Amino acid sequence: MIESFKKNKKGIILMIISSVCVCIGQLLWKLSAEQGFFLMLLGFAFYGIGALVMIIAYRYGKLSVLQPMLSLNYVLSIILAAAVLKESITVIKCIGVLVIIAGIVLIAGGDEE
Predict the structure, then answer these.
(1) End-to-end CA gap in the chain
(2) Structural domain of residue 14, as residue ranges?
(3) How many domains does the chain have?
(4) How many CA atoms lie within 13 A of 51 on its CB side?
(5) Phi and psi angles of residue 22, each rounded to the nearest 5 degrees, phi first
(6) How far apart are the C-alpha atoms of 66 and 108, rounded to whole Å?
(7) N or C: which end of the chain has fewer CB within 10 A?
(8) What is the per-residue pLDDT for 104?
């Protein structure tokens, strides 16, 4: 399990960075609905950077390991929604986040040749 993670480490880190950029971009789109055009453009920039980082990440690992890392978008979206938009985090959302994180950990470390 550890060996598989080491093999895909660079790709996994890049996919996490991609997820963060995409989530920030989407948050900025949400904010732009009320706060203006500049935030929408900034959102597109973050989303675009996330897409480019994702393409680079694919050079460093298997699709079957790296693509599921984008599930972190769901986790990050809940965190950003709570921190920035003051949305509530329910017990059900917490359980869902834990299941997603467990799945990501299992996929990241479970790739065997």
Answers:
(1) 11
(2) 2-109
(3) 1
(4) 8
(5) -65, -45
(6) 8
(7) C
(8) 85
Q: Is 9 within 8 Å of 62 (Cβ atoms)?
A: no
What residues have CB less than 8 Å from 60, skipping those under 6 apart? 8, 10, 11, 14, 66
At residue 3, what is the residue type? E
Give the residue among 56, 46, 72 at the shortest CA–CA distance from 10. 56
Per-residue pLDDT of the chain (113 residues; tens, 9 = 90+): 555 556 678 888 999 999 999 999 999 999 999 998 999 999 999 999 999 999 999 998 888 888 888 888 889 999 999 999 999 999 999 999 999 999 888 887 765 55
CA dihedral angle for residue 96, residue 100, residue 106, residue 112, rounded to 10 degrees: 140
Cβ atoms of 46 and 96 closer than 8 Å: no
**Type of residue numbered 13:** I
